[in-house]
Amino acid sequence: IFEAPCSSVSSESIQDTDQEMQIVEELHAARVGKSVDLPGELMNMEIDLEDDVHSSSGIPSNNTSDRKLLIVIDTNILMNHLKFVRILKTTEVPGFDKLVLIIPWVVMQELDRMKEGKLLKHAQHKAIPAVHFINESLRNQDRKLWGQSIQLASQKHYGLSDENNDDRVLKCCLQHQELFPCSFVILCTDDRNLRNKGLISGVKSLSKEELSAELLHLSLNTDVCHQPCIPKQQLKAETTPLKETYKEESINSGLAILLESIVSDLEKSLGTGLSSILETEMKIAFGNLWMEILYLKPPWTLLHLLQCFKKHWLAVFGLVMEKNLLLTIESLYKNLCKANKAVDFTTVKFLLQDSRSLLHAFSTRSNYDGILPQTFAQVNKLLQTFAEVKTKLEPNSSENTVTKKQEGTSLMKSHNQEITVFSSSHLPHPSRHQEIWSILENVWITIYQNSTNVFQRLGSNSALTTSNIASFEEAFIYLQKLMAAVRDILEGIQRILAPNSNYQDVETLYNFLIKYEVNKNVKFTAQELYDCVSQTEYREKLTIGCHQLVEMEYTMQQCNASVYMEAKNRGWCEDVLNYRI
Q1: Is the domain covering 66-206 a CATH 1.10.1040.10 domain?
Q2: What is the largest CA-CA distance in the chain?
Q3: Burial of 46 (C-beta count, 10 Å sphere; 0-12/13-18/19+)
Q4: Tell me, what's the pLDDT at 160?
Q5: DSSP calls for 124-141
Q6: DSSP class of 495
Q7: What is the per-residue pLDDT for 513?
Q8: For residues 538-553, average pLDDT
Q9: How many CB atoms lie within 10 A of CB 139?
Q10: What crossing angle do the helices spanning 192-200 and 165-179 adopt, rounded to 10°?
Q11: Range with lowest mean pLDDT among 30-34, 349-353, 463-467
Q12: Spatial separation of the C-alpha atoms in residues 473 and 18, rounded to whole Å
């Protein structure tokens, strides 16, 4: 086991969030500094708009008495979260006839200047697809996206200054509040100061994350009488139950919003971990020349990082990692490209599972300055969110409580060297199968966490390590116990997955869980475990877990072989071998 040097990747290189905030802050500074002042009365609009998309007033000829949710989109949202905006445009929200996106005239002007490289040149690559999205929607006369007309934008209104682009965006919100008194207007911007101005002016103002969370809540909780983000008087007056088809549309919209949010968070957290790995391993392989050899220069997106891993696999990663790990990289890249076009449940599931497998594989080499454990924890949290929503969307979900993943797990008590799994939180009572499966997941997580501690201690060349295992000897002895535990679990799972398996085949795994599982809140029989793993859903999960455990067992064997001679020279091996036998 080899402990790689610490990474020194700058926050700008590894945090996509920093790039997003940089755009928000620089755009705000440009607005304040009037470097995005528009000529004349906003007449030099370069984006080609169809004349027949709007009436002369600039408002589509819909009935103004319809109850619409009108969301005014600021420039920074289109730049940083275009995928979210695309999904938003197709969202159905309970209590409203339709959701409509409003693009202020000044936002289109700012995007056009950035597209031409006249403003925030480093963000030009983000402005171009945003402009294309707006133009395509308007040309196709998409009734779910409106552009503020030049006539409305030119009006002197509400005492707001036309010299300030923040005020121009706010004026657009106030105009639509006045034009559509039966509708509800929300301003979506990541500019905190603009949100403050909106709130002071009586305009509901939310960041992308806030809007995503509230729309998700509305979509998944279709009782229109109890909605937190929108006043009751703005909702449709009728309180009769929603039609099943409308409920399905709302749930599908909510799921799309959630999946987009999960993918967005995954891109940030996994990007942080992989950028640290990439820089560290490139420096080991090429020294000070690494940046010149690097396939794609930072700042990176997650797609860029995966491309770099594929490009440099043979010369860098293939020398220190298993060859089949490249298949995981390729799967991640393929599914991420797919998710960037349209998110779906299966694609996100594969993304999260592959991400966890990839991080675990690299954790056997190094913790990369502590970044990898943090990233792994974030990915596990996303997997938990994913599982909880899947449970909620299942039929009869109202009868089931979402399973909460047990926290505070540990696999080791050093004073007696016993392997234990325990939980610091009380489990709720969802379906029996979910309770049982949560224990199996907990076993996997704790084995991973403690194998990481063992690898760090055995592979560390210095006293500086984040492992909580006190000594090399303790880590070596504990490695033998981990190997024995993984071997027992694998034997049990493989018997269950064998063709024509029956009730007796579950006993090996059941006996292991009963022996090592210390959880007073959950008791189950071998029959209940058999019923659980006989379900197609859980059998598929068990198959994935089996593959991951096989990889882990191989890694443990490699680690054991690399330190065996040192352990033998120190006189530990006889006792350990006797213990294993």
Answers
A1: no
A2: 90
A3: exposed
A4: 67
A5: HHHHHHHHHHHHHHHHTT
A6: H
A7: 80
A8: 82
A9: 12
A10: 40
A11: 463-467
A12: 43
Decide if pLDDT at 17 tops 90: no
Q: Where are the domains of the chain?
A: 66-206, 251-393, 432-570
Question: How many Å separate Cα 504 from the centre of its chain?
Answer: 40
Omega prior to 373 cis, within 30 of 0: no
Q: Please, are residues 432 and 532 in contact by the beta-carbon 8 Å criterion?
A: yes
Q: Say whether pLDDT at 240 is over 90.
A: no
Q: At what angle do helices 325-341 and 345-363 cross, to 10 degrees?
A: 150
Could you tell me the pTM of the whole model? 0.55
Average pLDDT along the chain: 75
How far apart are alpha carbons 81 and 31 in whole angstroms? Answer: 20
Give dist(CA 443, CA 89) in Å, integer. Answer: 42
Residue whose tokens read 């050093």: 414
Distance CA 508, CA 493 (A): 8
Instruction: Provide the token pair at 505.
Output: 């085949």
Q: Which two tokens stand for residue 450?
A: 């403690």
Helix (H) or strand (E) holding 507: helix 507-516
Q: Which residue has the tokens 């392997």?
A: 419
CB 10 within 8 A of CB 16: no
Strands 145-147, 68-73: pairing is unpaired
Residue that has been written with the tokens 């729309």 in this structure: 215
Choice between 159 and 59, residue whose per-residue pLDDT is larger: 159
Element (H, E) at 186: strand 184-188
pLDDT the model gives residue 263: 92
- Round to whole Å and give the CA distance between 363 and 277: 10
Q: Which two tokens stand for residue 229?
A: 């983000």
pLDDT at 280: 94
Element (H, E) at 58: none
Q: What is the DSSP letter of 6?
A: P
Distance CA 67, CA 98 (A): 7
Q: What is the pLDDT of residues 116-135, one digit of tens each?
A: 877 776 778 888 999 999 99
Give dist(CA 95, CA 182) in Å, integer. Answer: 12
The amino acid at residue 532 is C
- CA separation for the pair 238, 162 (Å, rounded): 41
Torsion of CA 218, 224, 225, 231, to 10 degrees: 60
Mean pLDDT of 238-244: 44
Q: Could you give the CA distance from residue 374 to residue 270 in angstroms, rounded to a whole number?
A: 10
- Joined together, the tokens standing for residue 35 give 């470097």
Report how far residue 269's alpha carbon sits from residue 249's, in angstroms, rounded to the nearest whole number.
30
Report which of 449, 510, 513 is spatially closest to residue 482, judged by C-alpha positions.
449
3 vs 553, higher pLDDT? 553
Distance of alpha carbon 456 from alpha carbon 553, whole angstroms: 16
Name the residue among 5, 13, 545 with its Cα closest to residue 274.
Answer: 13
CB-based contact 127:80 (threshold 8 Å): no
Q: Supply the DSSP string of 227-293, one letter for each residue.
A: -SSS-GGGS-S--SPPPHHHHHHHHHHHHHHHHHHHHHHHHHHHHHHHHHHHHHHHHHHHGGGHHHH
Q: CA-CA distance, 117 to 126, in Å (whole number)? A: 11
471 vs 473: CA distance, rounded Å: 5
